[in-house]
Design brief:
7-stranded mixed beta sheet, 2 domains, globular, Rossmann fold, single chain, alpha/beta
Length: 209
């Protein structure tokens, strides 16, 4: 067998490095999943229902009811369905919330003919239908690659469908917005702060035509 050329060695090294990166990401993701599951089971995410968290939920709910009244909504990283509670059931034709098993357990009692909660990982979840709106409410941080993730989910938006996104105001999060807006046009945006000075930027993103 002939020895590998320098180019082949370089390519082989890159392949090994890439595989190692994927394994590390997978391991970290599993560790995080187990941590979040435990925290939800212990009630450590109950603060999401606090009054000072209401603003960004209300903005996203308002955008949906104004732009896609009686439409369908896919809520990625839905937790126990706090956003769903901000939208009267008569205002959507179908709601599907996706998250890990522990938060879904807390939401399952709200399931109806129109309201569904399913267990899934946003990095691998494959919707079974298209939606009028897909929301990432303080959950986009858990996408391994936000832009690629949105490009994949864009396949499951109906014509003229929209993304609804809320991101905590922090300097490092500007890179996420820049990444998304390099491909998805912004229809509208608002930043809101609570009494503590905590802020969220909420935006409506559309698909490029």
């Amino acid at each position: 067998m002939s020895a590998m050329t320098a180019s082949e060695k370089s390519s082989h090294a890159r392949s090994i490095f890439s595989k190692a990166q994927r394994l590390i990401k997978h391991a970290l993701g599993k560790d995080n999943e187990e941590k979040w599951q435990t925290q939800y089971a212990q009630g450590q995410w109950a603060w999401l229902r606090n009054l000072d968290e209401l603003a960004h939920h209300s903005i996203l709910a308002g955008y949906f009811m104004r732009l896609k009244p009686h439409g369908s909504l896919l809520d990625m990283g839905c937790g126990e369905g706090i956003l769903q509670e901000s939208i009267p059931e008569v205002m959507y034709s179908k709601y599907v919330g996706v998250d890990f098993s522990e938060p879904i357990k807390l939401a399952s009692h709200k399931c109806t003919e129109r309201t569904h909660f399913v267990v899934g990982d946003m990095n691998t979840y494959v919707p079974t239908e298209c939606f009028d709106a897909i929301v990432f409410n303080e959950s986009i941080y858990y996408l391994e690659n936000p832009l690629k993730g949105f490009q994949r989910y864009a396949q499951y938006l109906k014509p003229d469908g929209i993304f609804l996104v809320s991101i905590f105001v922090k300097d490092k999060h500007q890179a996420i917005w820049q990444q998304l807006e390099s491909y998805f046009p912004v229809l509208d945006a608002v930043t809101v702060y609570n009494q503590k000075g905590t802020g969220w930027t909420c935006k409506v993103l559309t698909c490029p035509r």
